[in-house]
C-alpha cells in the first residue's frame, strides 16, 4: 500500500493530474462559448478599481486594499489587492470564458510567460479618464497603463514572436472600466473641476480622453474592446451617505451625471466603430442591470442594498475598513462589500448577464 501511495503521487502522476484538472477546468468553466469557431486567447483589462487585480500593491499610494478584511472570501482568505471580498470582474470574465481562473496584475514581479499569453490586468484603483483623477489619488493613469501595455507587447514579441503576438492582440477581449472616480471624487467630492466646468462640459472632457485612449489602444493592435458604462453612482452607499439626505436615498444628481456621461460614451463608441471598421468597440451598459439589482435585490438573492459589508457600511472603503472589527457574516447577502465596491456575488451576477448579452457583439 505504501508503495502504491508513493507511486500514485510520483512526479509523472502529478503532471497527469494537473493536466486532467486543467482540461476539467476548461470543459466545465467555459460555460459561455464565443460564436462560431472564434478564439479568445486572452483577457486584458484597463481602468480603475473595478478591474484592478492588485497593481496598486506595487505603487506608492494610499489607494490600496491588500489587507483584511479584503479578500476574505478569496481562495485561502487572502487579500490580494482586489477591491472586493473575492474575485474581481476581470477574473470572472476569464473564468466564464474558460480562459483561466485568475487574471494577474501586470506589475506582479512573478508573472510567467503563460500569464502574458492568456491575459493580464493594467487597471489601477482610483484612476479615471480625467488626467487630474489619478494625480489626486496617486495611482496609475490611463496613459501610463497604455505605456505598460506597450511594454507588455514588447515582452510578448520577444518570447512568442511577432506573428503569435499579433494573433493574441487581434483576437483577445480588451475591457475598459473608468469614469466613476472622475464624477464621484474629482468632480463632486473634491470640487477640483466643479469651479471650471458644469457637469455637461465635464462629461465632455471625460469623453475626450476616453476617445483618445480607445483610438490609441486600437492603434496598438486591439480589435475587440468592451467599454463599461458608468454605474448608478448615486446608489453607492458612500454617495447615499454624502448626498442622499437623512433617509440615505440614491443621490439623484450623481445618477443623472452617470446617465449623461453614458449617453455621450455610447454615441462616441458608435462614431469610433464607423471610423475604425476593422475593430469592434462595444458599449457595455452596466447602469441598468446594476440598478435593477439595487432596486430589486430579492429577485437576485440579496438582502442588503444600501450599505456595505465592512464597518457600518455607510462610508468605509480601503483602509477605513480596518478601523472597526465589524464585518458582516455573509457577504453574499449584500450588494456592496464596502461603500464603493460590489461583492463577488454581485459581480458574478452582473458579469454572467453582460457576457451573455454582449459576447456576439465582439465578433
UniProtKB/TrEMBL annotation:
Classification via Pfam families: Lipase_GDSL
Spans traversing the lipid bilayer: none
One annotated GO biological process: lipid metabolic process
Domain of life: Eukaryota
One MF annotation (Gene Ontology) recorded for this entry: lipase activity
Family membership: Belongs to the 'GDSL' lipolytic enzyme family.
PANTHER family found in the cross-reference section: GDSL ESTERASE/LIPASE EXL3, GDSL ESTERASE_LIPASE EXL3
Record protein name field: GDSL esterase/lipase EXL3
Organism: Quercus rubra
